[in-house]
Amino acid sequence: MENIRNFCIIAHIDHGKSTLADRLLEMTGALTERQMQNQVLDDMDLERERGITIKSHAIRMDYLNNGINYKLNLIDTPGHVDFSYEVSRAIAACEGALLVIDATQGIQAQTISNLYLALDHNLEIIPVMNKMDSDSAMPDEVEDQIVDLIGCKPEEIIRASARTGMGIEEILHAIITRIPAPKGDPEAPLQALIFDSLFNQFRGVIAYFRIFNGTLNRNDYVKFAQTDKEYHADEIGVLRLTQSPVESLSAGDVGYIISGIKTAKEIKVGDTITHVTNPCKTAIEGFKNVKPMVFAGIYPTDSDDYEDLRASIEKLQLNDASLSFEPESSAALGFGFRCGFLGLLHMEIVQERLDREFDMDIINTVPNVMYKVHTTKGEEFEVHNPSGMPDVTQIDYVEEPYILAQIISKSEYTGGIMTLCMDKRGTLLNQVYLTQDRVELNFELPLGEIVFDFYDKLKSISKGYASFDYHISGYKEAALAKLDILLNGDPVDALSTLIHRDNAYDFGRRMCEKLKELIPRQQYDVAIQAAIGSKIISRETVKAVRKDVTAKCYGGDITRKRKLLEKQKKGKKRMRQVGNVEVPQSAFLAVLKLD
């Protein structure tokens, strides 16, 4: 155990975390030249295209120093705010962390929030200033920021460049000398923490774990504490670039276990593995079921694919513990699932992965957040879907979730950012100048207001410089209204939204105008209306495609023309009674992109 080091890398998006991991793997000989490629741990196409880490990864490296062979377990973490649960699991399995900060950009919001997460778990922090080879690097300025943030000495900060390999040797030396070896008793009852899992169609569920106490051998009879299921450990091993089986793992080790689990529900990330015969007395603490923040309906485009979609979401949930779902049905879209996500990027990634990895064609409804409804009878319940709102007469008041938002930006964009947050019903809590031209703004905002396009607007106002991080602060009473969209008098439940009364009229009008462009013309007039309760607040009409029935009528009395028009009118009326208006998929997507 003296020679094991478990560590993770925490950083903001695009601060060079994946490239630094590449250099560490190269330097320790964990990769051959043939296996080497940029961002080798980002093995999903989606991660490479977007340049972000979505999944946390784990890999073992061997490093020889002064004749001693050290085992270094790197547990890579994502950097985006929506994947903070992944980060918390990785941190719980480590004793130390490399805090990577871009020398050209300085400290960003996500860096601070992940750092606090690491400090809560008492991790040893090694600050690394990356991208020192860049012409726009500001080493002295960023060094002052780091010293202010974590209170270390300037000489403790390692200056490095992941691209050129500068400072990598120094980082490896710091990992060995500064990060403590894992504590634990190999002779105690087995106590191992599951920090990730994935599904293999040939082997079943593969769980990644870190052992805190005890020893695990191949073919041991083990059980999972939360689900109370028992299995034989068919194969255990360590995580190199590929999985490499071993006979035994003990306290401090990070590895994987394959035990022929076929159903996704039987494994929970954060669960504790222990022996059936000699179980540990307590499970490992600090893990919780993740609370989703944004909800949206996912429906198959073909209703026959419903069961395939269920299987796909279950397999995806194994690899992404923060996704939750439950079945629901909609009059407009048939049977589907109500899914909970941590944020909008998380939602986008899940939809993209369903399409790529499972080849599912899906329709998704307007995203919304969870509200607490208090009825006149004194009951309280949660509403995830606008169609679940009770009648207006039964509602006493509604509470919506609020967030504490932390925005770090250049000071020249402060005015634009404040205007944006005020427009979203935000309250400025405080404003701190970190340096002469960098400012930190703290706002209290309703979560429902940032679900749509807040992040995109923030980036465009600040020319991409602002960084944004948030956490939930609680619930507050709000004047909310349920906005329904009616087509020919029939509500389309998939387009219903819960919105603040002040914004309802404007939003309803824009939705009607957008739908008028997107809904194809029928043989009869289609009325598109936005309504709150029984009050219509906006209306647009898609004009009918008409045939000129009076063309053959030349001359004669006006009553001849009128007779033909009346006959056409009756036909249109009958058609409207039996016809229904199809809402194209582009209409559901357009609602998300309303400016």
Provide tags for this entry.
single chain; 595 residues; alpha+beta; Rossmann fold; Elongation Factor Tu (Ef-tu), domain 3; Alpha-Beta Plaits; 5 domains; eight-stranded antiparallel β-sheet; six-stranded mixed β-sheet
Structure in words:
The chain is α+β, with helices and mostly antiparallel strands and 595 residues long. The protein folds into five domains: 175 residues, P-loop containing nucleotide triphosphate hydrolases (Rossmann fold, 3-Layer(aba) Sandwich), CATH 3.40.50; 85 residues, Translation factors (Elongation Factor Tu (Ef-tu), domain 3, Beta Barrel), CATH 2.40.30; 72 residues, Alpha-Beta Plaits (2-Layer Sandwich); 107 residues, 2-Layer Sandwich (Alpha-Beta Plaits); 111 residues, Elongation factor 4, C-terminal domain (Alpha-Beta Plaits, 2-Layer Sandwich). It has an eight-stranded antiparallel sheet. A six-stranded mixed sheet has the order 2-3-1-4-5-6, with helices on both faces. Strands 22, 23, 24, 25, 26 and 27 form a six-stranded antiparallel sheet that branches. Strand 12 and strand 13 form a beta hairpin. Helix 12 packs antiparallel against helix 14.
Low-pLDDT windows of residues: none
How many beta-strand elements? 32
CATH-level-2 architecture of the largest domain: 3-Layer(aba) Sandwich
CATH-level-4 superfamily name of the largest domain: P-loop containing nucleotide triphosphate hydrolases
Major beta sheet summary? 8 strands, antiparallel
Give the CATH topology of the largest domain. Answer: Rossmann fold
* Gyration radius, rounded: 29 Å
Structural class: alpha+beta
The residue fraction in helices comes out at 25-40%
Broad CATH class of the largest domain: Alpha Beta
Q: Enumerate how many helices there are, as a single number.
A: 14
User: How much is the average pLDDT?
Assistant: 79
Strand order of the largest sheet: 11-10-16-7-8-15-12-13
